[in-house]
Amino acid sequence: MGSNLHRTEHNTRSFTSRLREMWKRLQDFHPNSYTFTKALAEQLIDDVAAELPVVIVRPSIVVPTHKDPMPGWIDNLYGLGAMWTAGQKGLIRVHCIEEFAMDSVPADIVTKTTVLASWARALDIRIRPLPVGVEPKGVEVVHATIGSLGCTFGDMEWALTEDGLLDKLAFPGAIRDPKFYRLDNPIAYQVLHWYHHILYGVVLDTAARLTGRKPRALNLYRKFVTSCEATAPFVKPFVFEGINQRLLQILMHPADEEAYCFMDMYEGRDNVDTFRKWSYETIRGVLVYALKEEDNYEKHRPHHDRRVP
Predict the structure, then answer these.
(1) Residue 39 has pLDDT above 70, yes or no
(2) Most CB atoms within 10 A, among 3, 22, 82, 180?
(3) pTM assigned to the model
(4) Could you read off the pLDDT of 235-280 as tens digits, one per residue?
(5) Where would one find coiled-coil regions in this protein (predicted)?
(6) How is residue 62 annotated by DSSP?
(7) In Å, how far are 158, 163, 176, 195 from 198, measured between CA atoms?
(8) Neighbours of 304 (CB within 10 A)
(9) Beta bridge partner(s), residue 181
């Protein structure tokens, strides 16, 4: 029994060691396991593309819905949703990131693009633009993105602070007044990160220990930093070829336009009132649908006014 257990532990350590060695080699062209496993999945699909009617839809960063089933719908706190929640609850105040248009696509646009791409593939409609006489090779790929129409972190900062979105939505349980600072200077970020996050976390954890509660703030901040480091490869400008997605909008039957057309979103990107409405619905969606909290500013306002500045 003891010998078998020892052999099992040895094999496990050996297997883990081989995996780590393999990962070191893969890191030269994949920043993390997330992109690596996606590449593996796409390779498997490409291998059967000649035998099965398959198509690959690649979404960019998915955010709450634009219109369907209702504006702002989301059921998780992945990605930007987690950052918005941490900011609205006063946990996170500063973030070090360059200013660029983030390709963040609403979830319903991803769904509609997927349906249209599946429809086109089922009817053997080739949407990939190719020169005359050139036969398509491999699986067809459609990017579900919005490109340069995505909002920048400067846009978010404007909506949250200058436009007063932070004062229109109160997240229950906020530990202090929500504020948002975007910095592109790493040194300035480290200083403010220490002041707004680390020092504040020490104060919160000390107070928790003195009152017999479990200290959690510093651990949350460590997770935040780790998360930022893990997602750093994605938080930069990307250029996605979006012509296939646009062609799908043109190819659809007129009777399907009401359900599957989303070109109106592109038209309203530079309209201040439209962007203001989209910002409100997005943050409200995180509050109501992901956190399942009540959207009642007047009810939560007394607590909102008592928060630490």
Answers:
(1) yes
(2) 180
(3) 0.79
(4) 666 777 778 888 888 888 888 888 888 877 766 666 777 777 888 8
(5) none
(6) E
(7) 26, 28, 15, 6
(8) 19
(9) 94
Contacts of 198 (CB under 8 A, 6+ apart): 218, 221
Residue 14 backbone zone (phi > 0: left; psi -120 to 50: alpha; other: beta): alpha
What is the pLDDT at residue 28? Answer: 64
Q: Which two tokens stand for residue 268?
A: 């309203």
DSSP, residue by residue, 49-64: TTTS--EEEEE-EEES
Model pLDDT for residues 88-109, shown as the tens digit of each residue: 888 888 776 766 667 788 899 8
What's the token pair of residue 138? 């491999």
36 forms bridges with which residues in the sheet? none
- In the structure encoding, which two tokens stand for residue 179, read together? 């504020």
- Bridge partners of 193, per DSSP, are none
As given in the structure block, the two tokens for residue 173 are 């349980």
CB crowding 118-146: b at 16 or more within 10 Å, else e: ebbbeeeeebeeeeeeeeeeebbbbbbbb
Distance of alpha carbon 250 from alpha carbon 261, whole angstroms: 9
Determine the length of the chain: 309
